[in-house]
């Protein structure tokens, strides 16, 4: 039996594919390459190019490869841009998840690990985010991920008394960074690490947006977690579902402590060997001082832990980006 990874040619999905293979599971990839790269899919891994909106493709792929479960990573992940493209965001993330669920029911796949987001919490008024915090998404992206969780919950309720009840869990996380394989790197134009890397490669100076926050060094603090740790948690969640072991409906994959933007910039200079002093720009409207999630439940059930230091995060990401040059 195998596991389908939607979005398996993307930055996070490609790491999940590698982690599945290393765990002795058989990954299968569906990706439309709108933001992924065919080169990120390892040789020998079955790959169907197409959209998660194509139910026939999903069903045929699941049946051909005997898929028992899905790790649903595919989606439109740009929170800021989702404000100007809400209909596209809902199509990809809400309708896409509905189609995945329908295809699973049609093909007899009954296990699902959903790549959700800490964006479901919006801008919380507490420094440490726990799973039971009220959900107040602040963007269409966050809303679409929360609706995705609702769809999955409702399908599980609807199938609970059937022959193949849906078993599932959702993993919520903030900023995924680094690389676990030098052939895979973050190509997003909206994430901090690739933005800084591209500036440094171009000989330009990176910018910090505001240095007057109520934090230790004046720059805002966020949750940065290594992509290899994220991938490993997805695999353990899949293994628990396959073994019939209990899981929570959702887990935060959080760092517990967080890192400030200045700490990231300092590590960038230290690890790359490029000495620079970041420019200070204006605050971005609505940016809170600090948002960090706890990972206690995930540590208990999914062997979740932060295995990488900030220097490791920068080093692995930088080496993968330089390897692509």
Automatic annotation (TrEMBL):
It catalyses: UDP-alpha-D-glucose = UDP-alpha-D-galactose. It holds the Pfam family Epimerase. Keywords: Carbohydrate metabolism, Isomerase, NAD. Pathway: Carbohydrate metabolism; galactose metabolism. Residues 3-254 form the NAD-dependent epimerase/dehydratase domain. This is UDP-glucose 4-epimerase. Signal peptide: none annotated. One of its GO terms (biological process) is galactose catabolic process via UDP-galactose, Leloir pathway. NCBIfam families: galE. Belongs to the NAD(P)-dependent epimerase/dehydratase family. Its EC number is 5.1.3.2. GO terms for molecular function: UDP-glucose 4-epimerase activity. Its cofactor is NAD(+).
């Amino acid at each position: 039996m195998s596991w389908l990874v939607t979005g398996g040619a993307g930055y996070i999905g490609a790491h999940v594919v590698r982690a599945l293979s290393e765990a002795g599971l058989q990954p299968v990839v569906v990706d439309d390459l709108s933001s992924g790269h065919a080169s990120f899919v390892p040789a020998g891994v079955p790959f169907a190019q197409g959209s998660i909106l194509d139910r026939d493709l999903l069903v045929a792929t699941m049946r051909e490869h005997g898929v028992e479960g899905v790790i649903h990573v595919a989606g439109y992940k740009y929170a800021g841009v989702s404000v100007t493209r809400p209909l596209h965001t809902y199509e990809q993330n809400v309708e896409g998840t509905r189609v995945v669920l329908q295809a699973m029911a049609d093909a007899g796949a009954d296990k699902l690990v959903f790549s959700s987001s800490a964006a479901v919490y919006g801008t919380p008024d507490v420094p440490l985010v726990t799973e039971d915090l009220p959900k107040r998404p602040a963007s269409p992206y966050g809303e679409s991920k929360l609706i995705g969780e609702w769809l999955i919950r409702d399908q599980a309720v609807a199938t609970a008394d059937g022959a193949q009840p849906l078993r599932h869990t959702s993993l919520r996380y903030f900023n995924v960074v680094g690389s676990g394989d030098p052939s895979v790197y973050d190509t997003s134009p909206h994430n901090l690490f690739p933005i800084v890397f591209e500036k440094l490669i171009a000989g330009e100076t990176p910018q910090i947006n505001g240095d007057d926050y109520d934090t230790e060094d004046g720059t805002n603090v966020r949750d940065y977690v290594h992509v290899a740790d994220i991938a490993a948690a997805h695999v353990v969640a899949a293994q628990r579902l396959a073994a019939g072991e209990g899981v929570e409906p959702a887990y935060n994959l959080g760092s517990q402590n967080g890192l400030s933007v200045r700490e990231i910039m300092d590590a960038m200079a230290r690890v790359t060997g490029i000495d620079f002093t970041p420019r200070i720009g204006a605050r971005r409207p609505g940016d809170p001082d600090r948002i960090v999630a706890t990972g206690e439940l995930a540590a208990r059930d999914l062997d979740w832990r932060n295995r990488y230091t900030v220097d490791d995060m920068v080093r692995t990401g930088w080496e993968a980006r330089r390897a692509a040059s």
